[in-house]
Amino acid sequence: MSLFDLLFSNVAETHPQHRDPRLRTRVWKAGLADAMEAVRGRIAALPGWCIVYDSPGAGRIFAERRARFGGFVEEVCITFHAPQENRVEIDARSASRLGVGDLGRNARNLRELFAGLQPPPVPPPSAFSSELPEPER
Predict the structure, then answer these.
(1) pLDDT at residue 103, as a whole number
(2) Which residues constitute the domain of residue 62?
(3) Of 41, 51, 121, 127, which sits most exposed with the smallest number of CB within 10 A?
(4) How many structural domains compose the chain?
C-alpha cells in the first residue's frame, strides 16, 4: 500500500486480482446459505463488529466495525454471488464514515474478517456420484 493510499483513501475492497492475496475474492464450494451463515458467525465472534442488516435474498450482509477509541465507525458490506450450485464467490468492501484517509484501517478490517473465516466442509461424494475413484484391479 502506498503512502498516498494510506493518507487519502478511506475505502478497501476485495476483488479477484487484488495485489494482496488476503484481499482477493473468496470462492467456496458451498451453498449460499452455508456461506452466509459462516460469515454471520465470524462477525459475531469479532470484537467491535455487529450486523446492521442481513439480506439473504439479495446475498448481502451489512455490518459495522466500531473502533475501541474515538468511536470511529467503518461500514462493511459483504456480497455473496452464487454463479453455480455449490459455488459461492464472496467479496467485501469496508469504508470509513468520516475522514479522508484511514491509515490502512479498512484493509485491516477485511483481513480480520477473512482471516478466521473457514469455508464449510465439503460433504463426501455420495455412493452414486461420478466423483468416486475407479476401483483398483
Answers:
(1) 77
(2) 3-115
(3) 127
(4) 1
Q: What angle do CA 118, 120, 122 make, to 5 degrees?
A: 125
User: Does residue 84 sit within a domain?
Assistant: yes
| Domain CATH number, residue 87 | 3.30.310.80
Query: Measured between alpha carbons, how far is 106 from 113 in angstroms, rounded to an integer?
Result: 11
Q: Show the DSSP H helices in the chain as ranges.
A: 3-8, 32-45, 105-115
Residue 50 domain-assigned (yes or no): yes
The per-residue b/e assignment along 7-44, b for 16 or more CB within 10 angstroms, e otherwise, is eebbebbbeeeeeeeebebbebebebebbbebbeebbe
Distance CA 52, CA 62 (A): 6
Angle, CA 35 vertex, CA 50 and CA 66 arms, to 5°:
15
Residue 120 in any domain: the answer is no
pLDDT digits (tens, 9 = 90+) for 18-44: 999 999 999 999 899 999 999 999 999
Rounded to two decimals, what is the model's pTM? 0.80
Torsion of CA 5, 44, 115, 97, to 10 degrees: 0
